[in-house]
Design brief:
By secondary structure, the protein is an alpha/beta fold. It has 11 helices and 10 strands. The termini are far apart. The protein binds S-adenosylmethionine. This is Class I SAM-dependent methyltransferase.
Length: 296
């Protein structure tokens, strides 16, 4: 069994570390886990999806932080990174498996060879409604608008109703557009390109998926179409101005929960201001009846 420090050393020594960003893998992994733990509650019963896991920086740091889910599945489209994870991480980090999955990505296709990869349909069948929690760090910062939707649909199909999925991205909103246009962003982003951008901003025309940002309404819409809803947002500091706890924006989605029968819905109890006067029928009952009529 390999020590975790040895796994990080293997990552540092591998050219694959450059493919996933090039920074120190332990520092990046730890930072991802800090973000994850701030927003998603993991415990021994969690079944966790690491979507676009790369060389497994997040997974290893999760184990290092003492998080012991019942299952962690790492998925990625690049055969060499999945081989690395299978050889170096699976034997050391318990309950961990990896899936090499289908998918094209102009930014990563040069690392993809002819190895058989599992189709989204097969994986949908295998993991339908399985994961209680999931995350994708620096994946939705490198995909086309088309793939953004397809990948959210795919991930959502594997999430349990009520489950949480956290992903990072670059969100275009009034503030981030203003900051980029004012030359404040932490990357050298072209102001004219931002001026011309509508729902999608591509920083580099020669490598469009090296940095891609999407409008807030578009992201919200895609998440909803995938059967999830955004339940938390924590902005990063990529646009400058010193706000944010991380570099990229963090979006937490909840897979739509199963709906309860109207009579089983717990209502906020109301305070009775006049204790002697019976409230007939009590407001919550009237409210229930009204909702029942409206919603069935
Ligand atoms: C910048 S790396 C981040 C890796 C990892 N999440 C981390 O933080 O260490 C982006 C990863 O997304 C993966 N990726 C890109 N397109 C994908 C897709 N369509 N489906 C699944 N993974 C994808 C890439 O292969 C790459 O490993």
């Amino acid at each position: 069994m390999t020590e975790l420090s040895q796994i990080y050393d293997l990552m540092r020594a591998s050219p694959m570390n450059d493919w996933v960003g090039g920074s120190d893998p332990e520092k990046v992994g730890d930072a991802c886990v800090n973000v994850l733990r701030r927003h998603v509650r993991l415990n021994g019963a969690s079944k966790v999806l690491d979507f676009g896991c790369g060389i497994g920086r997040g997974l290893v740091s999760l184990h290092k932080a003492g998080v012991r889910p019942t299952k962690i599945v790492g998925m990625d489209i690049m055969p060499p990174v999945i081989e690395f994870c299978e050889q170096n991480i699976a034997p050391t980090v318990p309950n961990t498996t990896f899936e090499l999955i289908e998918g094209m990505n102009d930014h990563y296709d040069r690392f993809i060879d002819e190895r058989d990869r599992a189709s989204h349909d097969d994986l949908r069948k295998k993991y339908q409604g399985y994961f209680t929690d999931g995350y994708a760090f620096s994946v939705f910062t490198h995909v086309t608008q088309d793939d953004f939707q397809k990948l959210l649909d795919f991930v959502s199909s594997m999430m349990k109703p009520g489950g949480r999925f956290l992903f990072t991205c670059f969100e275009l909103n009034a503030f981030s557009r203003h900051m980029v246009l004012s030359g404040q962003s932490m990357f050298p982003l072209d102001r004219q390109r931002m001026m011309d951008a509508q729902d999608v901003f591509i920083a580099n025309a020669d490598d469009p998926l090296s940095f891609i940002a999407f409008d807030a309404d578009l992201i919200r819409d895609m998440v909803w179409k995938a059967g999830m809803t955004i339940t938390r947002v924590s902005y990063g500091c990529w646009m400058g101005g010193g706000i944010g706890e991380s570099l990229q924006d963090v979006i937490v989605c909840t897979k739509l929960p199963e709906l309860k029968k109207i009579d089983d819905v717990e209502m906020t109890p109301l305070v009775r201001r006049e204790p002697d006067r019976p409230m007939t029928p009590p407001w919550p009952k009237r409210l229930r009846r009204y909702l029942k009529r409206r919603l069935g």
